[in-house]
Every structure is written in C-alpha cells, then in structure tokens.
Amino acid sequence: MSETTREVRLVGLDGIPEIHPGDDLAALLGEAIERSGVGLLPGDVLVVTHKVVSKAEGRLVRLGDVEPSPFALQIAAQHDKDPRQVEVVLRESRRIVRMDHGVLVTETTHGFTCANAGVDASNVDTETICLLPLCPDASAAGLRQALMARFGLREGDAFGVIVTDSWGRPWRRGIVNFAIGVAGLAPLIDYRGHHDAAGYELHVTVLAVADELAAASELVMHKLAARPAALVRGYAPPIAAEPGTGQDLILDPARDLFR
Amino acid sequence: MSETTREVRLVGLDGIPEIHPGDDLAALLGEAIERSGVGLLPGDVLVVTHKVVSKAEGRLVRLGDVEPSPFALQIAAQHDKDPRQVEVVLRESRRIVRMDHGVLVTETTHGFTCANAGVDASNVDTETICLLPLCPDASAAGLRQALMARFGLREGDAFGVIVTDSWGRPWRRGIVNFAIGVAGLAPLIDYRGHHDAAGYELHVTVLAVADELAAASELVMHKLAARPAALVRGYAPPIAAEPGTGQDLILDPARDLFR
C-alpha cells in the first residue's frame, strides 16, 4: 500500500479562448496553466473537455453538407429529430443500443455507449455540430507530450491527461463527466487481493478513478463561463498501477448485462 | 450566473474508528473534522460512505439468522450464490432488473438500481453482511443537524452532507461513488434556459453534481486505510438552486430506457 493522499486540489483553468480548427490547444492550455500560477508538477492530472479537443482537431460538421440516408430519414421522422443530425450520429456509431423517448443511445466507433454518439451542438453556430475526437486516447497522449515538453517533465514522471464528455446514466437523473481519453495515468485501480483495515480481502473492487477524476474536475469547470479544463493536484493512486487508456474503461460486451 | 468556483479542496478525514451499532457517528465525524485542522465552514460538503452510516444505524444482518425462501434458494443455485445473502438482497429490493453472469441487479426499496441491492460484506466478520441505510436522506439530514450544532453553523448556511455507495455502471468497467443520501445541497444543477459563453441557450443540460461530489471525494477516501469520509471545500453551485435529496437523483421510470 502506497502512502495515501489526504488532500487533493481541483483548479479550474481560466482564459482559454474560443477554439477553432487547427488551433494549438496544447499551447493554449500551457498558457492557461502558466497564468493560473499553479504550474505543472509531476503527479498532476490535466482534465480537458472533449469539446475544445474536437474543435481544435476540426471534428465539426456543417449540417448543410450532410445527405441523410433513408434509414436516418426514417429514424428522424419517428423521433422528431433533424435527419441530418441523425445521419451524423449513425456514421459515428457501430451499433444502436436504444431508441425511445426521443433519445438515440448508440455505441460509438470508439466503443463508448452514450446518447447521440456524443454528437452535440457545437456552440459555433446552429448549423454546425461537434463530434467526439477520432481517437481521444491519442488526443490525450498528444496533449501530454506537448505539455511535458513545455513544463520540463520527464517521460517517467506521473503526469496524466484525461479528455472528458458528459453523459446521462441509466436509472439516474442528470449528466456527469466521464473519461473518454486517458494518457499517463492508470484509469482503473484494482484492489482485488488487497486487504482492508479489518484484515478482509477485497474481492470485486476495481475503482474507475479516471471517471472519478473526470467527474471531480467538472466541479471547477463551467458550462456557462469559458472554463473547459482543470488541473487536479495531489491525487496519488493508493496502489501502484501502470498507465492505461480510455479504452480500458469500456466493459467487455460479453460481461455487459445492458447491451 | 453566480460567481464560479475556481478551486475546490478535497480533504480526507483520518482517525475515524471502526464503527459499531449505536455509535454516535456525528460525534466521531466531528472529532475527525476537528483533528484535521480544517474545521467546518459554510459552503462545505461532508461526504460519508454509507458503510459507516449503516453500521452506526445497526443495518447489519447475521447470515445465520436468515431463512432463505424457495425463490432465493432457486436463484442462489442458478447463480452460485449464498442463498441467505440472496434472501437478504430480495428483502431489500422491490424489483429484479437483471440476473446474469452471477450478478443480481435490483431496484432497492429506496428506488436505487445497483448490484445486490447495495448489500455487501460488512468487514465485521464473514458471517455478517451490511445493508444500505433505511433512509439515506434521513441519515444525511441527521448528520447535518448534529454537525451544524457542533460547529455553530446556522440553518440558512449552505452546508451539505452526502451519503455514498460505490456501484458499477452499464458499459463501463470499475465502480465509482454515487450519492444515495443528500441534505442541505442541490443534487442537480439545471442549466436549461441559461446561455453559454457563445450566447447559446443550453437545452438538455442538467448536471448531477451530488454524484460528481461523491465521485470526487473517493479520490481522498481509501478502501484499505480507515478513511470513510471527506470534506469538500470551495464548491459553489454555478446557478443558485434549492437543496434537495438523494431521491431527486433517481430517474423517472417512465423516462428510463434501461429498466
């Protein structure tokens, strides 16, 4: 058991401008970290909403350019949706999980299960929609490399980057932040085989800490102000674990009771 | 739009002893807060795992005292489980949602959907299991009242208490902390009708901040050490909202695609 973290700080990063395709997001995040005065230290985790990542990567689609398929037209008519938006959702999906109550839940090309394949209004203009990054793990890894170089961290330093999206959950009201891209961080902490304070062996306890870090960071982000990133300082995994990716958080379909 | 929080602190509370039925949990939490040196201020949120709440409230069952019904015997045989534990899970449930892969997902008497109705090993001894609190909202409200009195907070002060459990999620690996009892805090923040930085009206964005606070606090709690509570300092809801309960987080069954 490693020394445990008694205190964690969540710091929202201000002053990140509206992002456009081709912008150097790593540089803009680096400037925001410098302006915040907290700097970047080994052990930090940077959490970034996918919206700015997707915009920088040009993952925007103009609805006027989309030709809906007959299937998209049919779904749109049944569920009172824009057929062009449905067409984009289907292109971003590999399986439809549920269609009801005007909600289209699909499995994305990455393997995530969420409403509308993560496609949503872009806040660019009403005719432009924003997709998830093509590979959120690669996006996280790219930001990590660039920021490590900028702040003089070394390859072995524990510096994590998480790219997030906010999703609804079955049985629960409201959305929360989830980790869709991860780099330099163990997304899961496996307590199985370890013993608790009373000497009990823990059996089925694997914690999705990347999702908890994503959710935590939302508390200092802001949907209304322009604050799409946060720094988490002081988090240390209670059990040493190798870094992984956002793909590690996807449940094996064979074990999934809700496909 | 209220002034937003740029920084939030998560502080794990050490030195809470093993809890037994009848223990004054509020007093033990109060002592832990005093020992931590951070005190208790208006705006703080105290997050407590249900395990210590359940133990203090005597929500423990000795398996030797349980007579399994024929239905429990049948389920246990099909899924290789202890029939006495299945019997307790059924008594704590009002509906079975899924039974497969050795997992029994039910809707609890409170309305939560989770594995085994939240019933798990107690770490008291292998023959004793721990149930969820009878009414986690009442547990949270009781702790809140006692701690407000102890630390001299007034009824109008924003001091929130959240009681948590950790659950698996469909489609995702690993468990995360969820809010099952809430007092003195708005569990949901409704952005609908508000406008983002680009002037866009937000349409379907209701954030489950109580679940995000629960998940965040797990980062400074610890399954191996005895740290079942954490204090969140500096969180302020971005939009003013009335306090609610853990029941507010349960999705209306009529709108649920995964029942």
Features of the shown structure:
alpha+beta; 3-stranded antiparallel beta sheet; 5-stranded mixed beta sheet; 6 helices; homodimer; 259 residues; globular
Q: What do these coordinates show?
A:
- The structure is a homodimer of 259-residue chains.
- By secondary structure, chain A is α+β, with helices and mostly antiparallel strands.
- Chain A folds into two domains: 9-59 and 132-250, 60s Ribosomal Protein L30, Chain: A; 60-130, CofE-like fold, CATH 3.90.1660.
- Helices cover 25% and strands 26% of the residues of chain A.
- A five-stranded mixed sheet of chain A has the order 1-13-2-9-10. A three-stranded antiparallel sheet of chain A has the order 3-8-7, with helices on one face. In chain A, strands 4-5-6 form a three-stranded antiparallel sheet.
- In chain A, strand 4 (93-100) and strand 5 (103-108) form a beta hairpin.
- In chain A, helix 1 crosses helix 5.
- The first copy, chain A, is globular.
- The interface between A and B is large, with 76 and 77 residues.
- Binned strand content of chain A: 25-35%
Q: Helix and strand succession of chain A? A: EHEHEHHEEEEEHEEEEHE
Number of helices of chain A: 6
How is the quaternary structure best described?
homodimer
Tell me the span between the first and last alpha carbons of chain A. Answer: 36 Å
Please report the first level of CATH classification, the CATH class of the largest domain in chain A: Alpha Beta
Report the mean per-residue pLDDT of chain A as an integer.
Answer: 92
Query: What class, by secondary structure content of chain A?
Result: alpha+beta
